[in-house]
């Protein structure tokens, strides 16, 4: 009996089972797009804050650069996201190097000046959530603090209008204490 007679139907069944299990898994965890899952996973509130307060471009997003671009393009361009095209490996490596350094390091200033970065959208995760270091920095002003993400503005004369938004890093908001 030739292998091809049963291999194609078997492959189709296996593929169907795998896809169904993935959809069920996604459905169980991620279907409630409005509310808990989306609010926790994506920097939805921080993006709304950036839009509402007109935080100046450019913004370095430590994670979810694709979501950042989807929500804020064309006014805001992303420094990098999960795509190697158009950014290339060099930018992704540079982001990894920045993640290993404190925000007051000369490399941060070089990247900030080179790309005209005015703010950091710092999202909790592997390369993100540098809250203690950003809070301790003399160059970054915390303007939005939430348990999942933060927004810091680069301290320079053209960004002085954001000084009134300065937040106390000791009063980070949580889901239960934050509204909208």
Count of spatially separate domains: 2
| Topology pattern, helix = H, strand = E | HHHEHHHEHEE
Q: Order of strands across the biggest sheet?
A: 1-2-4-3
**Which class best fits the helix and strand makeup?**
alpha+beta
Task: Please report which band the strand proportion falls in: under 5%, 5-15%, 15-25%, 25-35%, 35-45% or over 45%.
Answer: 5-15%
Highest CATH level, the class of the largest domain: Alpha Beta
Distance between the termini: 64 Å
* Principal-axis shape: elongated
Q: Which regions are unreliable across 5 or more consecutive residues at pLDDT < 50?
A: 25-39, 175-180
CATH topology of the largest domain: Rossmann fold
CATH architecture heading of the largest domain: 3-Layer(aba) Sandwich
> Roughly what is the average pLDDT, rounded to an integer?
76
Number of E-state strands: 4
Helix content: 40-55%
Integer-rounded radius of gyration: 21 Å
Main β-sheet description? 4 strands, mixed
Number of helices: 7
């Amino acid at each position: 009996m030739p292998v091809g007679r049963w291999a194609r139907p078997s492959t189709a069944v296996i593929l169907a089972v795998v896809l169904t299990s993935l959809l069920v898994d996604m459905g169980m965890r991620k279907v409630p797009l409005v509310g808990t899952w989306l609010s926790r996973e994506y920097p939805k509130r921080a993006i709304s804050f950036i839009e509402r307060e007109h935080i100046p471009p450019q913004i370095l997003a430590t994670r979810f650069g694709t979501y950042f671009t989807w929500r804020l393009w064309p006014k805001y361009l992303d420094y990098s996201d999960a795509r190697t095209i158009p950014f290339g490996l060099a930018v992704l490596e540079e982001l990894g190097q920045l993640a290993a350094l404190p925000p007051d390091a000369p490399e941060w200033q070089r990247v900030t000046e080179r790309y005209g970065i005015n703010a950091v959208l710092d999202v909790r995760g592997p390369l993100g959530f540098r809250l203690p270091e950003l809070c301790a920095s003399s160059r970054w002003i915390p303007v939005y603090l939430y348990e999942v993400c933060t927004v810091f503005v680069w301290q320079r004369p053209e960004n002085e209008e954001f000084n009134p938004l300065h937040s106390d890093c000791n009063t980070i908001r949580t889901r239960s204490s934050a509204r909208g």
